[in-house]
Amino acid sequence: MTLRPLLLLALSVALPLCARAQVPERTIDEIKAESIARAERGAYPLGGLDPKDVAEALSLIRTRDRDEWAQAWSSVAQRYDDEGTRATSASAAAAAFKRAWRLFYLAQWPVPNSPGKRAAYERALDAYARYGRTLDPPLETVRIPFEGGTITAYLRLPNASAGPVPVILTISGLDSRKETVAESYGQILSQGVGFIAVDGPGTGQAPLKASPTADRMFSAVLDHLAQNPRVDRSRVIVSGVSFGGYWAAKLAITERARLLGAVVQSPPVDEVFSERFLRESTLGNREYLFDLAPAFLSVFDGAPTIDDLARTLPAMSLRQMGLLGRPTTPMLVVAGVKDTQVPIADIELLLRSGDVPKEAWINPRGGHLGREPRGWTDPAIFSKVIVPWELRLIEQSRH
Question: pTM of the entire structure?
């Protein structure tokens, strides 16, 4: 083969990647229109927000400037924060602080990667803490020593339990936070099951960035649970959403002996971490509201650019680590065939691995996390699929 055909072949391979890398993110007008649409149907990440509050915040935004975004949402949030401070009843304070937390959370979304967004994140933590003080059973903030730092987590256990209780170790995703998953798992307390909510590596208050060995922070959380006499350490289930699902899938293998089971919802496994997927599917992803690639950049050390991220991600692959052929704990895999953030090929690869049968809930019409705009929404999947599976696994373990 002559030099000219070789050059043409190289260009034919490289050009699609380069061209795809130029796909733009949503404009601010597109972001505003999509945000309104999602708020009206209660879709992530605007679920639980009043569309009127959303419209008010968006009316204050003119550009994609991160601090402008943070300031607009924070100004609306502050009104409810003040309302909670003035409240004369616990129920009124709870409602106001919860509303403030959700708005401050949107102010820092998807990640606190500017001064204004970092300030909004701190305000979100404060609002959630004040909301948490109104809860019954109480929300306990636990601080677990870890490698010279601290893992901050939320622990909630059922009231008046007769003995140690099963616990869900729930891990947030790339842009969700431990507050988000703690709010979801509040419904399991009435079933005699508690939870401990933790930020994933590189997010929230996690003490370390994402890396091939960052799952060691969750081993420290399991150590902490094992020492708590209120926790039934033989009945701990790990549950992870999106990037948190990656960590849950890994723990189902590496911490198999200490886990009763694992729930993994749209977990990245292998292909997600390839350079091709990064450039062809992550950059400019429209299923994600905006800035999926910048969110990924924020969770890894030493990856300030997309090219750096492309070199960093492959080492995260569970296949590259040689883990997929090893024994696992029982697992529920939740996903959507139309997911553009985690390909169904990754889900199929995980389902074919390990040594025990897995249970799968795969929505042929679902996107990321298996969700649909209506019908199988995030709350429906959680309450009708995930929680029942966890409760059934716990009950089966008793017999």
Answer: 0.93
